[in-house]
Amino acid sequence: MIYFLLSYSVIALMVITAEGHIQVFQKPRFFGVKTGRTVMIYCVASDPSLPARVEWLIAKTYNGYQETLESNEKTVIMEKTSTRNASITIKKVDLDDNGVYFCKLNGTQGPGTALRVSRHSDPQAIMSRSRVKDVIIFLQGFLLILCIIVPLVQFFKLEKKEDADYEEPKDDHTYEGLEIEHCGDVYEEINAVAAPNSDADADAVWEVESPDQE
Prior knowledge:
Distance between the termini: 191 Å
Strand content: 15-25%
Structural class: alpha+beta
Helix content: 25-40%
Radius of gyration: 59 Å
Order of helices and strands: HEEEEEEEEEEHHH
């Protein structure tokens, strides 16, 4: 009985010592998948023959806080055995599953596996959205051109109209409508006045007084 207890203690001590020096690896280190896929992460010990207790944690990318994961319908955790490595399977991943997954074997934490989930994209839907964007950009450019051209056209039309309103007339009609009086008899009256009345007047001589005659 004493030898049995002693041998059991030695074995337990060896296991504890081995557990303290265990190294943990994770495969793969990164996953990039679309929504709806299933992923599996392995947790590998440096000594596969050693028994180990496995624990899985997740650190969300937005807060970094580590949460312990439990096995359920979506997440399946497989314990380590002598012929199988520990693993975690995540079914139908979605955007909420983004984060870094860590495994612990006997308290020793692995380096972590990053899982990046993105939405599934349809090529036809992408092409359709691209065409719609092109049409919207074209309409925006067309409206911008109209906003620039229409005011300019209106401005030139208004300027041309003002020039037409103030156009100088070709014919001068300043005196149009005024009556012009004809003086055809003036010369006859002057001649009548200037005609001599007598012979004395005809023979009259104009005398011009010189300044020296004073």
